[in-house]
Specification:
Chain lengths: 207, 207, 207, 207
DNA sequence: GATGAATGAGTGTTCATTCAT
DNA sequence: AATGAATGAACACTCATTCAT
């Protein structure tokens, strides 16, 4: 992979914030350069173009996003506990990378640009595989039922979070989460538990 | 509410498509005018500005979005069946209005513009109320368990769909849905069932 | 000459006000139509174009501007009194037609448009002739000195007024003329007397 | 004050010419850019906007307009000669800055824009003060009469010139000044003398 | 005769990018 | 390597005018 120097990383971070806040098209290279305290020309100089900066940003972030959960499968805990851990990890990772998720969420459906998101696809596939393994393990132990569409579980987790976070001002008001600290706390507790319960119930309850 | 004439509706539809495809900032008024087969100046003439066009669009779409589900509560069916119907209605409505949902999804998290989305908030609140009524009914009949965070159910439904649809190219490949017809079919059957099962399980299964 | 109907005159008056206030280029036909309470298309309809509206306006106003001073020369008063009367008439007429004077003042030096201002030139020439006659009469009576550049007297009168009026906010403050009534009063008394004295002194005082 | 670089001054000069010839609203930024041989975007780049360009222009010109006449009062010449010199200076300065005077003349009476013309007001006030001092000196020496409205003398000088110059095509024809050189010559001789005589007569002749 | 709808040319401005150093 | 100046294309929008009725 390409290595980025300090200045480049500053630019990437500035860009990430702005892209997630006002969108790619809503962000000007001048705004990025101002936020990163560098000259406008540096963006073209370092990354080639604004679009390539986005690509670099995606690569930069996704490369650090690979879930370090391979050992989860090896742990001697029940599949149910594994699911709980997996969901918590999912939420945690999306929350940590919420800016990038927001960007990707929009850019993936934007027909103007077609980013090379193979890296992201790989991550998703590997996560899906991990989930499938856990579920199959649970099904083999007769803990989980059989008729579940495994592929639709990640979108439920990711989608729930993304929707919740993108409409955070609405939900903050609805749930009385007056500060960002309260919101973060809510996400790591109530929200995570809700998702855990949801996925567990889906896997266990026969209907 | 303001009434829109035929030409205005054509413009609104063209704008909706483009906004959902390439974003508000990624859409030029010339692209809209070309798609709607009208002169550029007509957009300012009819709506005042590009931004006001978006506002008009939101009003236009949301006003027709109110769920006609009040009678659902009156039907003599079990709360479980009500939930099934409600989820199916939800999915159906989001699918029908997927363009607008995509636009709103982005605009709600975009700090650049702050649309007056009171109408949309009202819709969400009324839907949430309806859901809460059904759940309370089920809880009163001891069909549903008590410890559920009702407010987090709509984001799970909406978020699951939105994420699924915004990443449809990924999921189409993953699930072998080679055509849009297959995709639509999948959504109305497997996807809907998945969500119905998920919500039902969450409400019924005590864990 | 062309006759104008009531509606046309309303348009002309609205246009005159706006032209004098914000200039020809600064005035939009829509602003005129709004002020005159008529449809925008009427302007093109009645006058052909915005530019031709200006031409019509000039014709309309100048035709009523001809000084009715021919009898002044016949009156049995001294040339000095005639000069006094002439200056007072001048000021009065410019004040009455100040909007049109303001328009002409600017448009005459505007290279973009070359109005056919023959009518205005005729007026100026005839006024100059009248002035010259009075001065010659005074010189014949040895009341006025000989070495005076008659052609430069009208610009002194018109220019003094125009400059004063175009900078009226400055002079109102300088002279404490807090209201428009005070300003009008000042013009008809002190200002007029100042100009009368000036011209008389110029004509009489040998230096 | 802000310093302007070479390119900026080129732009300012091009703008001044065009503004004085066809007015501010009649001038397009593209016309300025063409005349100054620069890219259109440079105008926004250097001055922010077309309107701010005008403001910069006014500041640029007025700052160099301050009359260097303080020593006039110290010279050991009679008040009459001082008036002569003052008028000549006035005419000279207006002639040198005729473009800016034309612009200001229009903009001061244009309700659309309200330029901050404090600098110009200061210049006018200081000139008026100088004039008042000379007149009071002459009155103390019984050379000048008492009943004169000093504040109306500058408008007579400035107005006479401005009107003359703005209608120069009329006066050139009237006075047979077929070339611009002849016109300039006329202004520095006959026209200046006319104004000197006028003001002197006003101050000296008791009527 | 009179008008609301519609047009295309043109407006000032902003944009990502490149140039000269 | 790093930058301020400069560029041309594109932007949303406004304009006077004309069209269809």
């Amino acid at each position: 992979m390409t290595e980025f120097n300090e200045k480049q990383i500053e630019i990437l971070q500035a860009a990430e914030n702005l892209f997630s806040e006002v969108g790619f098209d809503g962000t000007t290279v001048r705004a990025i350069s101002k936020k990163a305290n560098i000259n406008v020309a540096m963006i073209s100089y370092y990354f080639g173009s604004k679009e390539k900066l986005l690509e670099s940003l995606v690569i930069y972030r996704i490369s650090g996003m690979q879930m370090d959960l391979e050992n989860l499968f090896l742990e001697h805990i029940s599949p149910i506990e594994k699911i709980e851990k997996l969901v918590a990890f999912y939420v945690q990772r999306i929350y940590s990378n919420r800016c990038m998720y927001q960007i990707l969420h929009f850019e993936m459906s934007n027909k103007k640009r077609d980013l090379d998101l193979k890296a992201f696809t790989d991550v998703k596939n590997s996560n899906l595989q991990l989930l499938a393994n856990i579920i199959h393990e649970g099904q083999a132990l007769n803990l989980f039922k059989k008729n579940v569409t495994i592929e639709l579980i990640p979108p439920t987790i990711i989608g729930s979070f993304t929707h919740f976070y993108m409409n955070k001002s609405y939900y903050q008001k609805l749930l009385g989460l007056t500060t960002d600290v309260l919101l973060e706390n809510y996400i790591t507790t109530t929200f995570t538990e809700h998702l855990q319960k949801t996925i567990k119930a889906l896997l266990v309850y026969e209907n």
